[in-house]
Automatic annotation (TrEMBL):
<dbReference type="Pfam" id="PF17645">
    <property type="entry name" value="Amdase"/>
</dbReference>
<protein>
    <submittedName>
        <fullName>Asp/Glu/hydantoin racemase</fullName>
    </submittedName>
</protein>
<dbReference type="InterPro" id="IPR053714">
    <property type="entry name" value="Iso_Racemase_Enz_sf"/>
</dbReference>
<dbReference type="InterPro" id="IPR026286">
    <property type="entry name" value="MaiA/AMDase"/>
</dbReference>
Length: 251
């Protein structure tokens, strides 16, 4: 389909070693081809942990430089398509998005801000948490959500640190992790990592488990569309998420 000159453009900041979110986002956007396009910029992220070396990857300036380059494409929104604020603290993404908007003049959101808006729209109080991360990172995510009024009803994690390796977890493995946490009957299951393969299995898992599945890649896309006031309903075949409504300022 020919791209309209007035098509919406979504700018997405991507961890350098992520190989999942770009093809998954493009696949999810297929029903809106010609009306919405996604454009990506990278900054270096290779390891996920709570140590100083891993933390230093999320210094503001390299992220803002990547956002500056994305802004050259005149997107309608810029999203940090990564989940670091889930363990670093939600305020880190609020500050980042404010800096991006102030510096580029483009409104900004993130995967984690979109997660929190989606959970609020669903009324989530008990969450099933699925990640590829190590136990200490998983525990930090659990603490942050507990402080946000959301208890982790059950969790599954793969114990990995190398960001590239997260993409090597198969869709079947991710689906089984979701089934494992579903036994506790949470209000929703969150696949927290944009380098995990959950987006295209979400609708089938929802039908099987009767629990909303919030995949990070899908949630970021939903958040971008919601932020700019675009209707995500054409994507509802990919899961209940795309039928949700939230005010743009919630992101």
């Amino acid at each position: 389909m020919t791209q309209s000159p007035k098509a919406l453009r979504l700018g997405m900041l991507t961890p350098s070693s992520n190989t999942v979110l770009e093809p998954e986002t493009q696949a999810l956007l297929a029903p809106m081809a010609g009306a919405v396009s996604a454009h990506f910029g990278r900054f270096r992220v290779t390891q996920i942990g709570l140590d100083t070396a891993a933390e230093s990857q999320f210094a503001l300036e390299p992220i803002l430089v990547a956002a500056d380059l994305l802004a050259d494409a005149k997107p309608d929104v810029i999203a940090w398509n990564g989940t670091s604020a889930s363990w670093r603290g939600f305020d880190t993404d609020r500050r980042l998005c404010a800096e991006i908007a102030a510096r580029s003049g483009v409104q900004a959101t993130s995967a984690v801000l979109a997660f929190n808006a989606a959970m609020a729209a669903l009324g989530v109080k008990r969450l099933g948490l699925v990640t590829p991360y190590t136990p200490d990172v998983q525990a930090a995510i659990s603490r942050n959500y507990a402080a946000h009024g959301i208890d982790i009803a059950a969790e599954a994690h793969a114990g990995l640190r190398d960001n590239y390796s997260f993409a090597e977890l198969s869709e079947d493995r991710v689906a089984q992790m979701c089934r494992d946490v579903a036994a506790s009957r949470p209000d929703a299951i969150a696949i927290v990592c944009t380098n995990m393969r959950g987006a295209r299995r979400a609708a089938a898992l929802e039908a099987e488990l009767n629990i909303p599945i919030l995949d990070s890649v899908a949630v970021t896309l939903w958040g971008c569309l919601t932020k700019i006031g675009a209707d995500p309903a054409p994507l509802k075949g990919f899961g209940r998420l795309f039928a949700l409504r939230a005010p743009g300022d919630a992101l």
